[in-house]
Task: inverse folding
């Protein structure tokens, strides 16, 4: 019946995902029939959940999508897009200036959940913290999870806590799922793992700040006395020089 067919599709909340592409997906999903008899274009029969899943799968920039009907002829599509939290970059060029192959040095946006959702343009500065490791063997990382959401959030809080202490972080590398390395802007490295809570690791860092200057602005003419801090041995902290 024409009176209950979907004629209008209104899209809101999208800024980088094309409205036309969203509508095209919905039109395609409602163009068929159930059992070759009942039109999916009916306001009462359209495959709501299937369309929502399809949109989230096709457009990785979409974090959440919900569809509601308005009257008998209109669908309202509400989109929330993922927001950049940091960058994940292919290894081989940690400063982002050298590309040895098609992937080396390329960076992608990470959201707050640790989901890679879009290729990032080249940045000349350090607008976002860069994460490395774990996914270098994957040809196309978009849509992949850098690390489980809970752990990524804990890691992000850990890095933020270092910044609060005045320790400037340049980048983070996951050497494995359980072994990590943080590069400070002054060249010092912090090695740690997940054998103990990150809060405890932070306490260990705080305990050595009176003896080791992790905040110093070092250079070739003013080098640091240590190369890295190793926090992988419980309450023992090892300081290594070159």
Result:
């Amino acid at each position: 019946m024409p009176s209950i067919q979907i004629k209008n599709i209104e899209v809101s909340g999208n800024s980088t995902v094309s409205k036309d592409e969203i509508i095209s997906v919905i039109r395609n999903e409602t163009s068929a029939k159930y059992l070759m008899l009942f039109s999916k274009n009916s306001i009462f029969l359209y495959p709501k959940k299937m369309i929502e899943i399809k949109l989230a799968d096709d457009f990785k920039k979409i974090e959440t999508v919900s569809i509601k009907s308005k009257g008998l002829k209109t669908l309202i599509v509400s989109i929330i897009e993922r927001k950049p939290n940091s960058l994940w970059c292919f290894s081989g060029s940690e400063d982002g200036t050298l590309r040895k192959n098609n992937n080396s040095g390329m960076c992608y946006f990470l959201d707050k959940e640790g989901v890679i959702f879009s290729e990032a343009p080249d940045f000349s500065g350090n607008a976002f913290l860069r994460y490395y490791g774990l996914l270098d063997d994957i040809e196309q990382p978009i849509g992949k999870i850098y690390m489980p959401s809970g752990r990524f959030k804990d890691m992000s809080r850990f890095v933020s806590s270092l910044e609060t202490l005045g320790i400037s972080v340049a980048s983070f590398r996951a050497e494995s799922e359980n072994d990590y390395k943080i590069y400070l802007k002054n060249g010092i490295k912090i090695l740690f793992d997940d054998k103990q809570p990150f809060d405890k690791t932070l306490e260990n860092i705080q305990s050595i700040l009176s003896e080791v200057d992790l905040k110093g602005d070092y250079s070739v003419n003013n080098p640091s006395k240590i190369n890295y801090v190793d926090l992988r041995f419980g309450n023992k902290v090892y300081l290594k020089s070159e």
Remarks:
- The CA atoms of residues 174 and 193 lie 9 Å apart.
- The two ends are 79 Å apart (CA to CA).
- The helical segments are 19-29, 48-58, 149-164, 198-208.
- Confidence is low (pLDDT under 50) at residues 94-101.
